[in-house]
Design a protein that fits this description.
Layout: E1 7-15, E2 18-27, E3 32-36, H1 43-49, E4 58-65, E5 75-78, H2 90-100, H3 107-116, H4 132-145, E6 150-154, H5 162-175, E7 180-184, H6 188-194, E8 197-201, E9 206-209, H7 223-239
Parallel strand pairs: 3-7, 3-8, 5-6, 6-7
Antiparallel strand pairs: 1-2, 1-4, 8-9
Helix pairs in contact: 2-3, 2-4, 3-4, 6-7
C-alpha cells in the first residue's frame, strides 16, 4: 500500500438547479472520518464525488488529494447496495476487482477475509443463496481485499444485527488501520466508536463534532463514548 493521503471536497452540488449542499470537507490522511446528517442531505453524493461517479446533479467545486496526485487506482468504494454479481460465487465476487484488472488474484487472502466475516463455509454460494446481511459482509470482504489507501464506505454495516455489526466494525478498524477512511453512517454510536473525526452535514454547512479524547476503536461501554453518542444523537434530532 502507498502512503496515506488526505482529501478535500469543497463546493456546491445542485440537482435541477436546486442546492443540495454547500460543503467543505477535509479527510485527514490515515484517519477515519464519519459523516452524519439527515437523510437526503447529500452524504452519499459526497462519497460518490470523490471517485468521480455519477451523482445525478452538478458539482461546482474541487476534489483534491493532499499529495497532489490523481485518485485513479487508489480508492476502494463500498456502496449502500452490495453490487454483487449474481452469476459469481461469494469468493469470486471478492476477487472480481483483481481479475478485472488482470492481476494475480490472492485466493488465499480472499478466503481468509471471508473467514473473518464468517462466510468461509458459504464461499461457493451465489448471492441469491445469501441473506441480506451475508451479502453485505461479502461486499465488505471485497472492499477490504482491495487494499487501497483511500476507502469510502456507505453505511457498510446497516444490514447487520447488533453483535455482528460490532464484530465487523472491529474487523474494518483492524484491516484499514493507517488508511484514509470516509464512512457515511446514520448511527451516532457507530461514528463515536470508529471516528478520529466526526462531521455533521447540513445543506448549508459542515461542522466538526468533538470526539472523545480516547483513541478509536473505542469501547462501547466507555462512559466517554456513551456521552458523546448521546449528545450527538440529540444534536442530530434537533437539526432534523
Amino acid at each position: 500500500m502507498t502512503a496515506p493521503f488526505g482529501i478535500r471536497v469543497a463546493g456546491q452540488h445542485r440537482i435541477n438547479g436546486h442546492l443540495l449542499f454547500d460543503a467543505d470537507i477535509t479527510l485527514p490522511a490515515g484517519r477515519w472520518t464519519c459523516l452524519l446528517g439527515r437523510s437526503g442531505v447529500g452524504k452519499s453524493t459526497v462519497l460518490r464525488l470523490i471517485p468521480g461517479l455519477e451523482t445525478g446533479g452538478r458539482f461546482t467545486g474541487t476534489v483534491t488529494a493532499t499529495d497532489g496526485k490523481p485518485l485513479q487506482g487508489r480508492i476502494s468504494y463500498m456502496a449502500q447496495s452490495d453490487l454483487l454479481l449474481p452469476w459469481l460465487s461469494a469468493l469470486e465476487n471478492v476477487l472480481i476487482g483483481a481479475r478485472l484488472r488482470g492481476a494475480q488474484a490472492d485466493v488465499a487472502r480472499a478466503r481468509r477475509l471471508l473467514d473473518r466475516v464468517g462466510l468461509l463455509s458459504h464461499a461457493d454460494k451465489r448471492p441469491h443463496m445469501l441473506s441480506g446481511g451475508m451479502r453485505q459482509r461479502t461486499a465488505l470482504a471485497r472492499t477490504l481485499f482491495e487494499n487501497r489507501p483511500l476507502v469510502l464506505l456507505d453505511e457498510p454495516f446497516s444490514a447487520l444485527d447488533a453483535g455482528t455489526r460490532a464484530d465487523m466494525q472491529e474487523l474494518a478498524a483492524e484491516v484499514l488501520q493507517g488508511r484514509t477512511v470516509l464512512l457515511v453512517t446514520h448511527d451516532p454510536s457507530e461514528a463515536t466508536r470508529l471516528a478520529d473525526q466526526i462531521i455533521v452535514m447540513t445543506a448549508r454547512q459542515t461542522s466538526i463534532w468533538p470526539v472523545p479524547d480516547t483513541p478509536a476503536l473505542r469501547a462501547i461501554d466507555d462512559p466517554r463514548t456513551f456521552d458523546c453518542q448521546t449528545r450527538l444523537l440529540a444534536h442530530l434530532r434537533a437539526a432534523a
